[in-house]
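We modelled the chain as a single entity of 197 amino acids. Its sequence is:
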Amino acid sequence: MGKYTKRVTKSWTEFERASSGDLFGESTTFINNLYQVSVDEDGEGALHLSIVSRDRTPIRDWRHLQRIKNEIAGPEREAVEVYPANSRLVDTNNQYHLWVFPEGSDIQIGFQQRHVTNRTWGAHKQRELDDGTEISEPQGARTKVVMPKFRAPTEEEEVVLIGEKISRAESTIAGWESELEELRARQRELQKKIEEK
């Protein structure tokens, strides 16, 4: 616990754009002293932020993820972190993903009133704010929560969803088959060179 506490309370440097030729190809990558963030855009204003700590240790500091979202995408844009169905799970290397909605989008889920404090409430501990975030504590009633309205897909919608899953699976398999064929060709090429020696 001591190491984790030490890391998350470290000073924060401004994000800088990483030089081209980074690991992530088409992504734009930003780096500060604690994090590396690769940003992909969908062409319609939505962003995908792929976040790793520079020391590749797990991140579970909500304030840091909020600050990354604010500094990279903007303080008034909304983002979500998805905990997917196991069939869509991607969990490879202490990498975290925020899906940022286009500017002006209000996703209609979560708290509807700002409430930021550095005060401890009973057994619930809160550390001091150290990044200049403004404290705002509403008076009176609890902060209002909006819950999403979910419904099961119709049979017609389910047919489309299953078709999309099949398409993704076929695309993944085709990618693996292509890579496998390239590896086999390279293996044959190397084997031939060895035999010619």
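As a brief sanity check on the tokenised model: The radius of gyration is 23 Å. The chain has two domains: 2-107, 152-197.
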